Amino acid sequence: MCRGLESLPTTCLERAKELKALFASLLQKSDHSITSQSKKNDKLRLNANEPLKWKESFDDLLSSQNGLCLFRAFLHSQFSEENIAFYLACEDYRETKPSKLAAKAKTIYDEFIGSDASREVNLDHVTKAITKENMEHPNLSCFNLAQAKIYTLMEKDCYPRFLKSPTLLELSRKVKTG
Fold this sequence. Notes:
The protein is built from nine helices and two strands. It is mainly alpha-helical. Mean pLDDT is 82; it is low at 1-5 and 25-43. It has a two-stranded antiparallel ribbon. The longest helix is centred in the C-terminal third of the chain and has 20 residues, at 144-163. The radius of gyration is 18 Å and the shape is elongated. The chain has helices at residues 10-24, 50-54, 58-63, 65-77, 81-93, 101-112, 125-134, 144-163, 166-177, and strands at residues 33-37, 43-47.
């Protein structure tokens, strides 16, 4: 199941490293707003209160590009990165053109849910069966139940562990004292 860091998108790993460095420098900055050049020459804006906002709710974390990247890197370190990958694949699937639904649904199912899935997510038998049945006639909601189960798993298990992770605790401490 563990395939090493190469299974994370390079941009996410780079961004997580950037974020760690940027947050670490918060103590040395006076205006609590840090700007740095990213690899693609777009500016990475980071507010000092951002890590504190991530603690307010799981949705706040997921809606932050920086928070999502850090959370994804955390999940990778916990060998459960497939959960957020599946969740994001489902979000992307909802934006799919009708003509491409069947092919994209099959790709998601084969990668995350099927019995030989390369990045199988932890779903109960009933949810898997319902999702498999939904695959007969893919529509924009065919993964809703499975996605909701994975969201709940991350919210109840992974998110609390992320909040207690040394990286986030250190960042939060620096924000409070900085």
